Write the structure tokens for this entry.
Amino acid sequence: MSAQALGVNDSASIRMTYNPEVYNKLRTTRVVVIKNADATAIVAGVPDKNNPNVYELWGGVDNVKEANQFLEFKVRRYEGL
């Protein structure tokens, strides 16, 4: 509900196994997440904002309980730069 209040219509929470390289990238760079490994999601090296399988990091990434076991973060539908 809080995402919809901010105008985000399509969002998801992701929880994955901790990986230090992924954690660092999620914290320091702009990230695009491709759902279902969709090969059509990137066109000429640029994410396709009209593709429903393209999401971007929204909010921050959490190293759950700083235990280096899980990462948790939110993504929202990608709408371009």
About this structure: The longest strand covers residues 54-63. Strands lie at 11-17, 32-34, 42-43, 46-47, 54-63, 70-77. The CA atoms of residues 34 and 54 lie 5 Å apart.
